[in-house]
Amino acid sequence: MNTRKVLPPALVLGGAVVVSVLALAGLGAQSTAPVAAAAGNLTYNGELTQGGWMRGKAPSGTNALALNGQPVPIAPDGSWFAAFDRDAGTIATLTATVNGRRISQPVSVSPRAWQIENINIPRKPGGPTEAFLAIRKPELDRINAARAQKTDAQGWRQHFVWPAKGRISGRFGSQRIYRGEPGAYHSGLDIATGTSGTPFVAPADGVVILAAEKPFTLEGNLLMLDHGMGLNSAFLHCSEILVKQGDHVRQGQVIGKIGMSGRATGPHLHWSIKWNEARLDPILFTGPMN
Description:
By secondary structure, the chain is mostly beta strands. Strand 5 and strand 6 (70-71) form a beta hairpin. It is globular and about 55 Å long. The chain has helices spanning 21-25, 130-147, 283-286; strands at 11-13, 16-20, 41-47, 53-57, 62-67, 70-71, 79-83, 91-98, 101-108, 116-119, 167-170, 175-178, 181-182, 189-192, 199-201, 206-211, 221-228, 231-238, 240-241, 248-249, 254-257, 268-275, 278-280. 9% of the residues lie in helices and 38% in strands. The chain contains three helices and 23 strands. The strands form five sheets. Strands 11, 14, 16, 17, 18, 20, 22 and 23 form an eight-stranded antiparallel β-sheet that branches. The protein has two domains: 11-108, Immunoglobulin-like, CATH 2.60.40; 116-286, Glucose Permease (Domain IIA).
């Protein structure tokens, strides 16, 4: 007779999801494994939705952690950060190795209703020219090299603040569909202030990983901050960058001025956030603008 207990995979306590390591490991009454080997809870909370994020605390003895097979770094105090791409599926898998035991837990990721505009015209044919690609490739190489940097930034632990206040002129995830053919979705959040030269601040502590010396073809004067644990912000179309690569900046510190450099039709700040390759919604880090 099987006497194994069926344990709930997760409990919600004060807004935090508490996943029992015993439940993750599938331990039950007949298990002879020492309780101490699987003691503790794997806890997390956050915005468990497409374009959202999660922070958690790993129990003592956690040797490795992964989300959908992607390694998740663990800080010395056991804290960790992970996130969900705009197009993430509705179930993710959190896997941990605790005292040598591999355990997995499904995480529900709620879908979003994106702002979709159906256009009754075909997409423009063709693509970028060879001349454009020759210019663009070194820029993309710099962006990718910046995102690959690992720093000691701790901004990933913070509740983010708005870098600037203004009209939201472009929302994350919005997309046009051209006669059934989807175009690229908007990968950031646009804040329009009406005039160039408006200062903007760091939304969280970070390290400057890219400060363009001259405008990029699309992004214009591009500024990028690493917030640690694979999380980074990019600020596009600046009229001026007030920090330099390698600087440590604090939340609320003025780091640049809003402009319309690069491919922009008016002065605004395009703010995008990524965790590794996942594109995230900035408003899920700040909450609504006051």
